[in-house]
């Protein structure tokens, strides 16, 4: 069984967000998939299987649990299908998911891939009491989308880069993702910065290096503030990565590159 590690939302190895991609030829047991994800220890491991109707079934697992939507592992999966010769380079890929419907990926300009995802505009809501001490940063605007992801606007990009959250405290707030964001610095080649933490899904410091699904909320959030539907975000983790976003009604087109860093066989 083929498995690869792909760095997503980057054009350089060891940057962006690594995801394992396992290409299945038959249905797999959920316990086995969770065990593989725990073994790989990336923020997500994707499991892809061709369906009879020309689509591909796609599921994503963190080391701790299954998730309902994952952008970087979808990008990595499409990259693996194209570069492995499973799908011709110019064709659109349609992924069938359990909780997020059909997700399409198609080749974009200059070697990018474009993903069609549901938009999840955050709505104003009072922050739980845990957020102020948990983020150890001044809170500005807060919002929550339908999956209980929280978007927290900080005063500037420097504040986003310096956040050092108390993950144990944030986990008590029951947020799937905690996203901190701010406008980009003057003269930057991107429009906004962000960092994303998954206190209930990822071990350790719970920071996800580059998070496609977070940009489903960040795209409408910043489109409203900046007055443009097409923007570029930079996720300012230690690895860093760029995500192009284009708001299209109730959908978001996420754009990025990917690089394969490992390819081999899974023996179990």
TrEMBL record:
> Highest taxon of the source?
Bacteria
Residues at the active site: 44
Q: Name one GO cellular component term.
A: cytoplasm
Does the entry feature the keyword Transcription regulation, yes or no? no
Annotated keywords: Isomerase
Task: Look up keyword Isomerase and say if it applies.
Answer: yes
Instruction: Name the Gene Ontology molecular function terms of this record.
Output: isomerase activity
> InterPro entries per the record?
Phenazine_PhzF-like (IPR003719)
Would you identify the family this protein belongs to, as annotated? Belongs to the PhzF family.
Could you tell me which PANTHER family the record lists for this protein?
PHENAZINE BIOSYNTHESIS PROTEIN, PHENAZINE BIOSYNTHESIS-LIKE DOMAIN-CONTAINING PROTEIN
| Name of the protein described by the UniProt record | PhzF family phenazine biosynthesis isomerase
């Amino acid at each position: 069984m083929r498995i690869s590690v792909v760095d997503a939302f980057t054009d350089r190895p060891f940057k962006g967000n690594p995801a394992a991609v396992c290409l299945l030829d038959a249905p797999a047991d959920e316990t086995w998939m969770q065990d593989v994800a725990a073994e790989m220890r990336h923020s997500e491991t994707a499991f892809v299987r061709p369906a009879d109707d020309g689509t591909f079934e796609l599921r994503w697992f963190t080391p701790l649990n299954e998730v309902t939507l994952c952008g970087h592992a979808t990008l990595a999966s499409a990259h693996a299908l194209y570069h492995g010769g499973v799908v011709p380079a110019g064709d659109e890929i349609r992924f069938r998911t359990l909780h997020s419907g059909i997700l399409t990926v198609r080749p974009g300009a200059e070697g990018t891939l474009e993903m069609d995802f549901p938009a999840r505009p955050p709505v104003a809501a009072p922050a739980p009491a845990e957020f102020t001490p948990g983020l150890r940063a001044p809170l500005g605007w807060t919002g929550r989308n339908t999956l209980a992801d929280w978007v927290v606007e900080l005063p500037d990009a420097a504040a986003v880069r310096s956040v050092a959250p108390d993950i144990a405290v944030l986990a008590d707030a029951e947020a799937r993702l905690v996203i901190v964001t701010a406008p980009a610095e003057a003269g930057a080649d991107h429009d906004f910065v962000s960092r994303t933490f998954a206190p209930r899904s990822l071990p350790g410091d719970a920071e996800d290096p580059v998070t496609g699904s977070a940009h489903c909320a960040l795209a409408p959030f910043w489109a409203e503030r900046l007055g443009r539907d097409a923007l570029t975000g930079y996720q300012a983790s230690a690895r860093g990565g760029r995500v192009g976003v284009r708001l299209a009604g109730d959908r978001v087109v996420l754009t990025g590159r990917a690089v394969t860093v490992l390819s081999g066989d899974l023996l179990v």
